[in-house]
């Protein structure tokens, strides 16, 4: 399935600073982008999902109408060229479904 389709499908998953854990694990990862300045940074995320054991640590962003997850590794690299990626943003609350 196309990542942009999934991102747009879950665009409404984030409400009032909260996201369901099932929605979080289904979000596509944004690794490459034609213009990083068009990425809107929304929240930081730091969530350990138990099954499968995956640590989500990074940012939740909007890009071209879709919601994406950017890992900490990618944000660290982006922070070298764009300071927006190393600023502190409000943390998202992950709720269990």
Describe this protein's structure.
The structure is a single chain. This protein has 97 residues and is of the alpha+beta class. The protein has one domain. 21% of the residues lie in helices and 33% in strands. It is built from three helices and five strands. A hairpin with a 2-residue loop joins strand 3 and strand 4 (66-71). The protein is globular, with a radius of gyration of 13 Å.
Shape: globular
**Which percent range fits the helix content?**
10-25%
Strand residues, percent: 25-35%
Radius of gyration: 13 Å
Q: Total number of helical segments? A: 3
How many domains? The number is 1
**SSE topology string:** HEHEEEHE
The helix-and-strand class reads: alpha+beta
What does the main sheet amount to? 3 strands, antiparallel
For the termini, the CA-CA separation is: 23 Å
Spatial strand sequence of the major β-sheet: 2-3-4
Q: Number of DSSP strands?
A: 5
